[in-house]
Amino acid sequence: MTYFETNYEKMDQASAQIQAISKTIDTELDTLRRKLQSMTWDGQDREAYNQHQAAWDSAVADMNALLNEIGGGVGIARQNYITTEMNNARVWR
């Protein structure tokens, strides 16, 4: 028989930490983007920068969306464990 145990408090902490990291990434990238916007480039340099920045923004948005999903998923898993444990306990009453 396989035995499985989970720690709800640690799952809460992990979920919160993952979501906090995602917010920190957003904040840092917004700061960097504002600093870069103050720089001026002309012609092909500007076009090349804009293309690379658009690709970067898209990749970071995808990464952050995934990070948020993971954080939310950990929270959902925690709740599912609690619900299952409560339902299993009711069987024995």
Describe this structure in words.
The structure is a single chain. With 93 residues, the protein is mostly helical. 85% of the residues lie in helices and 0% in strands. It is built from two helices and no strands. The chain starts with 7 loop residues before the first helix and ends with a helix.
Briefly say what this structure is.
Pfam families: WXG100. With 93 residues, this protein is an all-alpha fold.
Brief descriptors of the model:
mainly alpha, rod-shaped
Q: What is the alpha-carbon Rg in Å? A: 21 Å
- Strand fraction equals under 5%
Helical residue percent band:
over 70%
- In whole angstroms, the N-to-C terminal distance is 23 Å
Q: What is the H-and-E element order?
A: HH
- Structural class determined from secondary elements: mainly alpha
Instruction: Give the biggest sheet.
Output: none
Shape descriptor reads rod-shaped
- The overall strand count is 0
Report the total helices.
2
Q: Which spans have pLDDT < 50 for at least 5 consecutive residues?
A: none
